[in-house]
Design goal:
It is a single chain. It is built from six helices and 16 strands. It has helices at residues 2-42, 54-69, 71-82, 140-149, 153-160, 289-294, and strands at 85-90, 102-109, 117-122, 125-130, 133-139, 163-165, 179-182, 191-194, 200-203, 207-208, 211-216, 232-240, 243-250, 258-265, 268-275, 281-286. The strands form three sheets. Strands 7, 10, 11, 12, 13, 14, 15 and 16 form an eight-stranded mixed beta sheet that branches. A six-stranded mixed beta sheet has the order 5-4-3-2-1-6. The chain has a two-stranded antiparallel sheet with strand order 8-9. The longest helix is centred in the N-terminal third of the chain and has 41 residues, at 2-42. It is globular, with a radius of gyration of 30 Å. This is ABC transporter.
């Protein structure tokens, strides 16, 4: 009897120890998870180039320029914090002193007026200018690292929420007089489109059918710049009889231009064009020549 009691006592003790060990293990696991959660919460957010939007990149470039180079860059950022950050896009006409970078020139301003802060890009490399002086160069990764080290992540994010790309900025200092910068073509129109004969219609962020789309001031382009601007056009969005259209008119043209609309037929997307003068349909472009041939007899909305 005594042996049975002793065995029972040992079993009970073992069970108590096992339960205590399991409880302690669960407690330790819970504490580890809680500590891990605290660590994650305490880890500050960082700028990572591949995760940044275009507005965040422009915001980061502007803040970096302000901190590194001062002057016009600092003024632009100071104004932008009170108002908005506007990034206007210029072609290189009138900017022969800017040599580095490729493609367009970007102007930074915080009050909607022309400033002296410019930058150009080549892939992910940024070249900084102040008036007609090349200030320096940095990659987007270097800019992000610098701003991370100086605790500017929240500042970048905040400024990005009120950043306008391809903004209209009055021209009175640089480039062509009357050119208030390139406009941003609606994204739904972007791409290479084809009619049933294989003819291409190429639309990019700033061009339609080979013409640059510009904001033009009310005074118009200066007469001495007509040769430089013969492949420029102005554009605006219009709603005609319930159809949203992008009205593109070549500068100095005698007609009123074309209307570009995005429509669908049996699930396939097309860019349909109309004459502004008459409202008549003029052409249809699709994602491929094959699709265009298949939908050659498709019918679309009329503007009349």
């Amino acid at each position: 009897m005594r042996n049975k009691t002793l065995v029972a006592f040992c079993l009970i003790a073992a069970m108590i120890n096992l339960t205590a060990c399991q409880s302690q293990k669960q407690t330790n696991n819970r504490q580890t998870i809680e500590k891990s959660g605290v660590t994650q919460k305490q880890t500050p957010k960082r700028l990572i180039v591949k995760s940044m939007s275009d507005t965040e990149k422009s915001s980061a470039i502007s803040i970096y320029g302000s901190m590194k180079y001062g002057d016009a860059w600092k003024t632009a950022y100071s104004d932008a914090k009170k108002n908005r950050l506007s990034i206007s896009v210029k072609n290189r006409t009138g900017f022969n002193w800017i040599k580095k970078g490729r493609g367009y020139i970007y102007e930074v301003t915080g009050n909607g007026q022309e400033n002296n802060a410019f930058y150009t890009m080549k892939s992910e490399t940024v070249y900084f200018y102040n008036q007609k002086k090349n200030l320096g160069v940095a990659s987007l990764s270097e800019i992000a690292s610098y701003l991370n080290e100086h605790n500017q992540v929240k500042a970048v994010e905040k400024l990005a929420t009120k950043t306008t790309l391809a903004a209209e900025v009055t021209s009175d200092k640089y480039g062509v007089k009357g050119d208030d910068s390139l406009a941003l073509v609606p994204t739904r129109l972007w791409g290479t489109w084809y009619n049933y004969k294989g003819k291409k219609l190429v639309i990019t962020d700033h061009t339609v059918n080979g013409e640059e789309i510009h904001h033009i001031s009310n005074s118009g382009v200066a007469a001495e710049s007509l040769d430089q601007t013969k492949k420029w056009a102005r554009a605006r969005i219009e709603n005609i009889n319930g159809l949203n259209c992008y009205h593109v008119q070549t500068l100095n043209a005698q007609d009123f231009g074309l209307l570009y609309s995005v429509q669908k037929d049996n699930g396939n997307t097309a860019v349909v064009t109309y004459s502004v003068d008459t409202g008549h349909y003029t052409a249809t472009y699709w994602k491929s020549t094959k699709i265009a041939k298949e939908h050659r007899n498709a019918e679309f909305k009329t503007l009349n």
